[in-house]
Amino acid sequence: MDIAALGGTAAYAYLMGSVPSAYLIARLVEGVDIRTEGEGNVGARNVFHVVGKKWGIVAFLLDFAKGVAVAVPFRDSPLEQIAVAGAFLIIGHAYPVWLRFIGGKGLAAAGGFAAGLMPLATGIGAGVGLIALAATRRFMPSLIPAVVMVFVAAPFTGVDWETIAVALGVFLVVAVKRVLDEPRMKAVEAETGWDRARGGTTR
To answer: 140: closest CA among 111, 114, 113?
Structure first.
C-alpha cells in the first residue's frame, strides 16, 4: 500500500472525525462549553442530558454520519487502508485540534463506521436497538444491545472476518479512550455536581 495514500486516508479520516458536533450544538443552542458541563464528555450523551433529548439525538446522528462518511469511500480498499481510516476517525473525534485536543469517545462515530462497512448487519442491530429503546425508554443504554447485534449478525450477512475485526478494533479504540477520559470526567463531575447514573446534577 502506498504511504502517500495511507497518509491521505489518515488526514481525511482525522479531519472528518474532528468535526466537534456535540460542542457546536451545545454552543449554538445553550451557549455552553460541553467540555466543562455535565460529565464533561464531548459527545451525544452529554448533550442529551445537558442541552436536551432532541439535541442529544441530533448530536448522535451527526457523529454517526461522520463515521459513515469515512467508511464508505474506503470499504472496497485494502484492509490496511480501512483500518487506518477507522483508527484516525476515532483519533480525530477523541483529540480534535479545534478543541485543544479535548474530544469525546467516538461511540456514535464508530457505529457510523460499522454501518458504512456492514450496512445490513447494522440495520439488524438498529432494529434490536429500537426494541430496547421501546422497552427501556432510555436512548443511550439501548445502543449496547444494538452494537452487540451488529457483530453477531455481520458474519451471517456476508461480511468477511477481516472487515469485522477492523470494525471491532475501532470500537476497542473507543473503549480505550473511555478509560483514558475517566480522570478528567471525574474532575469535571466534581465541579458540576453531576450524577452520572442519574444523568443530572446533585446540587
So the answer is: 111
Residues 6+ apart with CB under 8 A from 68: 112, 113, 115, 116
Residue 122: predicted pLDDT: 93
Closest CA to 164 of 90, 54, 86, 102: 86
Residues of the chain with pLDDT under 50: none
Q: 184: closest CA among 24, 39, 34, 27?
A: 39
| All three cell numbers of 1 | 500500500
Q: Specify the DSSP class assigned to residue 202.
A: -
Cα torsion 131, 137, 141, 143 to 10°: value is 40
Please tell me the distance from the alpha carbon of residue 8 to that of residue 21, in angstroms, as a whole number.
23
CA distance 146 to 152: 10
d(CA 185, CA 170): 22
pLDDT score recorded for residue 1: 63
Helices (H), the chain: 3-17, 21-30, 44-50, 53-71, 79-94, 107-117, 119-136, 143-153, 161-192
Question: What's this model's pTM, rounded to 2 decimal places?
Answer: 0.91
Task: Give the dihedral of Cα atoms 78, 176, 17, 201; nearest 10 deg.
Answer: 160
Question: Are the CB atoms for 104 and 22 separated by under 8 Å?
Answer: yes
Cell 459527545 locates to: 43
Q: Are 71 and 85 in contact (CB under 8 A)?
A: yes
